[in-house]
Structures
1.
Amino acid sequence: MASRHDDRAPADGAVAPPTRFERLRRNRRALFVVAVVLLLGQMALAMVTAAVQQTPTIDEPVYVGTATVYVQQHDLRYNPEHPPLGKLVIGSGLLFARPHLDPAFEGDQTELGRRVLYESGNDPWRVMFWARLPVIVLTLLSGLVVLAFARELVGRVGALVALALYAFSPDVIAHGSLATLDMPASGFLLTSVWLVWRARRRPLPYVPLAGVALGAAVATKMSMLPAVPLLLVLTVVSVWHAGRAEPGAAPKDDVRSRVRLLGRGAAAAAGAALVAVAVVWAAYLTVDPRLRWTAPADLPAVHGLRALLIDLLPVPQPYRDGMRVQFGFENATWQGFLFGHLYRGSLWYYLPAALLVKTPIGMAALWTAGSAALLAVRRLRPAAPYLLVPPALLLASAMTGSRDLGVRYALFMPVFLAVAAGCAVAVRRRWAGIVTAALVLFTAVSSLLTYPYYLPYSNEAFGGPEKTYLRLHDSNVDWGQDLGRLADRLDRDHPHEKVWLVYKGAGVPSAYGIASDDPRTVPADQVHGLLVVSDTSIDKADARLKALLATSRRIDEVGHSITLFRRP
């Protein structure tokens, strides 16, 4: 008689039921996929909400106007200080919005943005949504790179930690929902670094792809250029490592083998550089295949090492002239605001201080822990130069700049350090997992509580988003994004009242139904009733505006970026 065990045994040719281990592994895989979808889903919701509710920030009309000219007229004359790829990304959305622009329009890039959004019969809400949507998509795709990079280093749990920090980063959400260039450039650069890292195992498919991503980064923002030599060095390192790991490789002390591997790495780096240059040229030729270009009449003169660098780069002439414009900006003197102090010039510690204010506390703690783990855990140390050196180099470069205008100049920090933070799970201590989970939860709660006002975010140690304007200004808090919300608030709470408005932004108040006058254009004794002031204007107030504010009573705020006062 067959035993009970024999009765349950599969017949010949039948498929055995999955074991308990196989079921557990499948369940873990399914939970991992669900967690990824939830994290990216909440991020998408946050970015789309911001994109729908916010009016144009200061830089966006210029990029949208330029992208419109790219798509419709194939002309490179506007906004030469930034390469065209990021604006082509924005322009891909404008193919669906189809904004009207008179081909005969003549004016500067600021006037161009105003003409496209407000003076050509276009719906500014619709145009801005479609312009922002491709950047949102790119930001989500960059999240998948964060996930993949961290998973290769520390597995699924670490990958989810990294993706959570990326997906809940208020700065990434804020700038990933705008038609600007900072987030695409940072995403392209991280992708390039990840591909160079993967070249440690298989150089051939990944080195050329890394060159494409690197070219995309520098074809989006010139501020990515300092990372190029570093990425080429890392390419040499990766190819060297791949050669040492090949079966039958020569002994490590074989000089001839070392020279051969070094030559192979140098050739791979040169190939990646050529691919990157080709991508830059392709971006310009996509706009105008004939590459027509006339240098601006007011192009700044550049001398010394900067001029030599410009002349040596094998890039199109519009790129070179754009670099001259950027160097001209760096030679100018700008106003800054930090911790209540308005100053002229720049402070070398501005960006680290601003990041301290605007980074969630749990996120900053995990950045530190993950970076320490990269250096302390032996199997992770090879990844440290790939994850820690590029953002450190770019931050050092940005700290020498003359424009203290926001952490967007260091947006690569939360992108790269999200991957590094995932490495915190490599610490083999009982308490480490609990602390990591608690810090991720703290970060998520802090981010969710600021919804949907991500641009003015600051962490709890500095009073939260409603207090950011006391410590920072410009794109850290008030970039002109809340004009539409102000219109709704005035219509709801202050209908038919006289409005005195000091607005800092690129939007046109009347386009959103706001009838207002500037209180700085009339004697102070004529300014009575509702006084509305952008928070950056409060931070940078001159003596006249300060006097008006001193004799007014604060009654409300909009979006943590605009303050309403009652003046008797």
2.
Amino acid sequence: MAAPNRGRRPAGAQGKPGRVLALILIAMVALTGGMFWSGHTTPRLGIDLAGGTTITLAAKAEPGKESAINETNMNTAVEIIERRVNGLGVSEAEVQTQGRENIIVNIPKGTNSEQARKQVGTTAQLYFRPVLTVAAGGPTAPQPKPSPSASAPDKATDKGGADKATSPSPSATTQGRAVTDGLKAPSPKPSGSAADKPAATPPPPGTAALEKKFTDLNCLDQTERGNVGEGVKPEEPTVACGKNSAGQWEKYVLGPAAVSGKDVDDAKGQLDQQRGMWIVTMDFTSAGSKKFQAITSKLSQQQSPQNQFAIVLDGEVVSAPQVNQTLSANAEISGNFDQQSAQDLGNILSYGALPLSFEEQSVTTVSAALGGEQLQAGLIAGAIGLALVIIYLVVYYRGLSLVAILSLLVSAALTYSLMALLGPAIGFALNLPAVCGAIVAIGITADSFIVYFERIRDEIREGRTLRPAVERAWPRARRTILVSDFVSFLAAAVLFVVTVGKVQGFAFTLGLTTLLDVVVVFFFTKPVMTLLARTKFFSSGGSWSGLDPKRLGAKPPLRRTRRTSAPTDPKEA
């Protein structure tokens, strides 16, 4: 006769519930500590709750050029729009892609929404302008003139690497970049060095007003930088700001635009294998080649800084390379590039030539007062929903409601800490639909408890005592909970993928809380039930425990152990 397996536990039994509880408590402490350590103790609020303007832009391509809408170009557009928004002096603005064709711009309260719409809704303006004067970024004395103490220009080489530029003064700051013709053999250049050329006085800006604007211009001020080129036509001279290779702001007087971004056929940053350096190559259209040849022919005869052309994007100089030879259809910019800076400049040059524009799909402006009211209404709705769930649990499940309430509190703590941490980590912002998702999640989480409690009650109705009932009910409840949560998570994932805008906030919150529901049920609710089943209050099946066999209609007699002891009283024998 085989000996019984005394070490075998019932199906679903959990031998060390304390260890499992310790895991989730450690996770809660870690998340809470990370929240306070990062300094983000509250979730970031979306525009509809904090107040501000949300602008949704949809990319549009010219007929036959739909391929222009791709990830690279959309990311470049995001960078350009960020530059524009930052030019308004906006802090904490967000610009991000959404889906394949949409860009969402969130501008916090305190910003002129009309000015913001004007800035982000127009196509990027890219021009090549000759440099007339360069000076340090702060306000300067009247009658600006180029001098060796000002930032020196970039220098030009041929594409084969032969240096064509005069070395800048040791005291000058230089971007160290060169424009070349793309040929391996050096192109002819004017005889003599830059020092041998006749001294050139920079042409006057043209009007006293422009000269005064240049002297008064303070490129160190973000707002002033953003507005410096506003309203200037391409055929007019202007002033602009830009950074040199040392990261210092400089200001420029620029001549009329000689080449536009539409004249660039293609541009990209790439690694020159022969020289082991990153460069930016440019190909011009037929019309663009003629324009570029004409302007570089003139610039190559000038002294620094008038042998530079500025690449100007939305009024800001993104690069100002030096020219010492006539260039035409193909050119490259070389110098102190790394991979990122070369690719960024290539993208900017390409974007100016793309048939890509943006159409304003929607604009939503919410005042700070209205946002506060909506947040308050959302919190009240959540509190009412939570209170109704708790009342139902207390009335129907009595003592078991303690387990459900504790589980809800754990779920709420995990959700709050994760939302606070996800704000700075991935840019998550709690908007009104996200609050709705959190409210819906209360019901989903409570439903998991109810499934488990009802399975336990079913086992008690079959005549089992509480401890085996808790363990035997778990495998059946676990399957139901996982299937239910999988369906909810799948719905949230599909909703997140196929929608744009604020609806994604609802989908994200619903998916997050659904995953947390699984974590809480497995790592908190089940271990707590295992521990409570060992207490006298619950194991005795009192009327207030919620597990009274009589109230549940248990089958009499209650199932007992099959082994019976032999009678010890002789009278009973």
3.
Amino acid sequence: MTTSIIRAACPHDCPDTCALLVTVKDGVATEVRGDPDHPSTAGVLCTKVSRYTERTYHKDRLLYPQKRVGGKGDGKFVRISWDEALDTIAAELGTIAAQDPQAILPYSYAGTMGLVQGESMAMRFFNRIGASLLDRTICASAGGAGYKYTVGTRMGTDLEQFQNAKLILIWGGNPIASNLHLWMRVQEAKRHGAKLIAIDPYRSLTAEKCHQHIALLPGTDAALALGMMHVLIAENLLDHDYIAQHTFGFEQLKERALEWPPERVAEVCGIDAQQVIQLARDYGEAALAGNGAAIRINYGLQRVRGGGMAVRNIACLPALVGAWRNAAGGVQLSVSDSFPKNLQALQRPDLLLRHGVPSRTINMSTIGDDLLRETSADFGSKIAAVIVYNANPVAVAPESRSVAQGFAREDLFTVVLEHFQTDTADYADILLPATTQLEHLDAHSAYGHLYMLANNPAITPLGESKPNTEIFRLLAARMGFDEDCFKESDDAIAAQAFDRRNERAINFDWASLKLKGWQKLNVPDAPFANGGFATPSGKCEFFSALMQADGLDPLPTYIPPYESVASNPTLAAKYPLAMISPPARNFLNSSFVNVQSLRDTEGEPHLDMHPTDAAHRGILTGGSVRIFNDRGTFNAKVRITEKARPGLVVGLSIWWKKFATDGKNVNELTSQRLTDMGRAPTFYDVLVEVEALP
């Protein structure tokens, strides 16, 4: 028996991007472990990825190309050859492109975060054909926009510094479920005396283990940050030197913040004024004492109408108290811009220039509406073909009923590259088997730590599955695209992943990275200790002229949710419960839902509801309930618990529809309205009502 250990990387949409060691015996992957030498992974994997072999060798893996033989959505297919599949796709796309190539739409997101299997050969193909561009907004673009207006770039506190902090605010996240390796360092900080405060409408697993939990109403985080600013300014808990040297617009900010006394904030957020005051004091006093005062923002809080502004407001706080001076202070939303990714070489946007006209852009978060649009002067050509890869929009995109209606169009040609027959795959005309991370090569950046990683293929592809890159290579050849970039190997693409002209990646060498598995960027421990913000002023911008030019309030403010008493009292009277749908611990977006052992742990779709709200409706724990609003309905088992604050219900997600008793999930109720900035979805800006089922 031949045994080998292969260095790999986790590909999923998680900030941890773990370094993996895959044990292979006689060509079969038998175990996936965390690399104990990788500083951020430290030998530990989450429950999901530790069972990766169960996913790779799943009995339902797609192993051969197939074509649809039933109705769209019925999920009925027959096996075909790769030649037939490729010829069919090339013929359909060629016919459409001859009329208007922008009627072709790629739809992808972070089913893999790899720089090779994600958007390299695929983007080259779509740029060359002249397809519509996809605005990939579904997860993080609102918060990213707010953060960049303020700080200038998505950089922040290094994961490897959090254990040195003395105060940690976990704002809008549940790292036990979705950022495990941060949580390990937070726990280390706690053992050394750090105070942990969770700010979250829901008492998550993480909030239960913090010293304090502030359960504000969904969508009110921006107001809480304004209240903190008020107290910091009123009580002079400020680093005046840092403000003078490294910020812009303090006097205007001061005037705005003083409009938000703790009493006003408490009323908006549904909390006590004393909580606002003490939170600000804890934060300001820790930073001014020279201790690490760190904030971990996660993306949950930006999935509301004012989500971008909420992140912006929070991002202002470290500069007020000089928290950036300490490597264990500051804030982390994402560190993804630390990586000098060579996107020009990877994706070849220059291939679009041959078409002479700019491609239109379709927002992935409004795919439900856009698939149903007819040809018009404003919209352009009706979408005639969608190629889905690294995504499952029928389960994940908002206002799911519209999404399903769009994919059910008989005149829409749909190709899906997948590992399994997902909810979206059921609507495919051609279904193509893609390789998993254990079967292909890739290069990875991260958004929660500062290491470049290599993923070496551990096993040969199962069945007739192919990497995304090879599928688009073959399609390019069928379409007659003869540019040299379509002949590049995955190794050649990966070798271009990072720009070595940038000092942060000056030591990048693909051959060495494959051997070692990972390498840290060349970055300072405290990125903004001496200012150096990537804004137009070079400072942390409390006042943003860019925002003003974009038609936004240039100062921090509060924007109430679309669906709230403040914005729509009539709707709030009809649907008095706010609903959020954070990730279930054993799923990752919609990945892993079909892994039996993980789904068994989750049980079935359920809704957490406060005892007061349940009693008012005559609902008993364990009973079946219908959750509904004007957009749709879905059913779940109810859990009556004080984890959900009064007025809030929580549906942990994202379930495939086919695994629910009613064939629906929480996105039946979400809307396609977009955030204040970043054009992102408002998944947590939802009002509903709940009733018991017989």
4.
Amino acid sequence: MKHIPFLLSILLLAGTACQKNFLDKQPDESITIDEAFKKRSYAEAFLTDVYASMGNEYYFTDYLGTSPNPYVIASDEMNIPWPEKFEKLMNKGSWNAYNVDAQLWKNMYEGIRKANIFLANIGNTPLDAVFTEADRQRWIGECKFLRAYYHFRLVRIYGGVPLMDYAAGVTDDFTKMRRTTLDSCINFIVSECDEVVTKLPVKLSSTRELGRATAAAALALKARIILYRASPLFNGNPDYISFADRDGNKLFPQEYRASIWAEAAAAAKACIDKCEQAGYTLYKKHADPVTNYQQLFLDNHNDEVLFAYNAGVTGWMEKCAFPGSLGGWNGYNPTQAQVDAYEMANGMAPISGYTAGGTPIINAASGYREDGYATADDPGKRWLTGVSNMYVNRDPRFYATVNFNGAFFVDRRMQFWQTGADGRGNAGRDYNTTGYLLKKYVNPTANIAQGRFSLGTWIFFRLGGVYLDYAEALNEAQGPVAEVYQYVDAIRTRAGMPKLPQGLSKEAMRARIWQERRVELAYESHRYFDCHRWKIAAQTDGGPVYGMNISAGTGLQDDAFYKRTLVENRVFQAPKHYLFPIPQSEIDKAPAIIQNPGW
């Protein structure tokens, strides 16, 4: 039998398996694709199945044998205690084209393939009083958005990929399939977004539609992909100048174009303006900034969310991030570097750098201390008596994002020292590796023992993220003009933080925007891609990872626990690790697909 790549092998199942997901009833199980699109209900079910390929980035480590979101743990934000996971292979630098999680490639091309089948056949679905031409155009818009989004998910980790904008047939010669240039892929994504904004509502009007694509999502996608194109990784990167296919076609841009930053700024501003006109706004339902930031990710599909995925009622996030004393696995462990990234409440950085041995250079003017303990509760209960002064008077988002030693959570205080209820001495394989647990996304009303969980969602695009996209692009295009301050300060003010100081240079503003993204967008998959597109991942994704001394301590105020301790040394090989390897199993079937540099 002729071997074909997975991205096209789904075609063989198009008349059976794909239908059976939603046409699971007699006597219609054996209907053909042509017959399926003769009924509106079947066509709508097929569209729903196109959405199913999005992949659940809510899972930071493998779930049911695949890793839909390895990016959080592969960045400098988090560690986990499970060495066999794919993310740990990335941390160790021991991943390759043979052991890379191929599901990321497969899922996206499966979705693209289903989208192409839908687009090729939806014109055959009869119109009636229930299914109008406007409905059909909206479905086409949703499907084209998803096709563009799936290509985006591939481009951001592989660069240029085979561009699939048609429903290929099994008689096609797939051995000649080639990668498309990066610019061709990005231009396709942008043009699709431009088209679908005229077909889709900017904002959904019914709760029954939550999760469906909108013009807001398309505008955000366009802004994001142009931002990536403007950034150093994809903008005349000298590492890829000579990278070409077997016919000599250069697959990456050959020259740096500063003008793309202005294009990215214009796209982000257009997204902001149209979204705000439609009623999207920064989430500000709670006066307390800690509560507000925490609820932003628990109040599903709120008015800041432009596009989100319903992740189900599995309790996976809570199981991975709850402490052992509450039935959790102690598994999602923020790094010390991420903890250090949170400013003091006065807006000053607590640490100005590190010595060669990893010792922090403390910014004394900020008020930060690593000695002593709090002598009283914070009036807002952000910290309680006895916690290390390391955790006192920090950015409110810190308290909504990280559970630290002595923090109050659910109905108890965290005990991460060696002999504590949540410490390594009371845990087996599932132990806290850094002395911190993730709090962001985690619903404190969950009860693992009783199996009581709530619906979780994964936000792909939110207005606050587009604010920071715009600020970054505008600063690169024009320098720190007033609107750069305006949109960064909008995020900081909402978080209960001071505005940026006036008079920053372009370079100083860049550093502040990078810092703001690191904190505001923490654990949303941005850190991995930001550091890669800025070409600083060799410093962030590689090198030593520190935490607290989890093997020490007999109580909350035991100084031994608070000694910064090496957790592991990570490996990042530049430029190799800036892009994923294409699964070798796919290249074996389509040898004209060129592997990424270094792999």
